[in-house]
Specification:
The chain has 141 residues and is an alpha/beta fold. The protein has helices at residues 36-44, 57-67, 94-99, 125-137, and strands spanning 22-28, 48-54, 72-77, 91-92, 104-108, 111-115.
């Protein structure tokens, strides 16, 4: 990198992942266009990192099903997959049951638990990132 140029402020500043880093995915057809990962990473690094994952519809089932045996702790599910993911969940919170969609998945052992972070009208990506951090990541062991 040229002298005087700052690193892009998108993911973890040094893009390092250790065995202790909690990993989260942002699963969408065009994940890089969703600012959520950049906003959330400012809150959770260096202990955790959200990685944007461009996933096509025909790869979605494979990706989520394989999360159960992966090192990924969870994932934000973009709007285009929030109903599709329901069949892949081992457990659903009451909001997922009530609204019939899921936007955040946590891996607990080899189980996937679905949550609905955006249950109320969320006005901004910053607000959604704060909800995800406070409700699902902050106290994760």
């Amino acid at each position: 990198m040229a002298v005087g140029l700052a690193a892009p402020d998108s993911m973890n500043a040094d893009n390092s992942i250790t065995k202790e880093t909690k990993l989260f995915g942002l699963i969408a057809e065009e994940a890089m266009k969703n600012r959520l990962f950049a906003v959330l990473n400012k809150m959770i690094k260096p202990d955790a990192m959200m990685i944007p994952m461009n996933i096509r519809e025909d790869d979605f089932y494979f990706t989520i099903a394989n999360m159960k045996k992966s090192h990924v702790n969870g994932a934000y599910i973009a709007k285009e997959y929030q109903e599709t993911v329901l069949d892949l969940l081992d457990e659903k919170d009451e909001m997922v049951e009530a609204y019939g969609k899921c936007d955040f998945v946590i891996r607990d052992g080899e189980k996937l638990i679905g949550y609905l972070a955006e249950k109320n009208n969320v006005d901004s990506v910053e607000e959604l990132a704060k909800i995800i951090y406070e409700e699902y990541i902050k106290d994760m062991k």
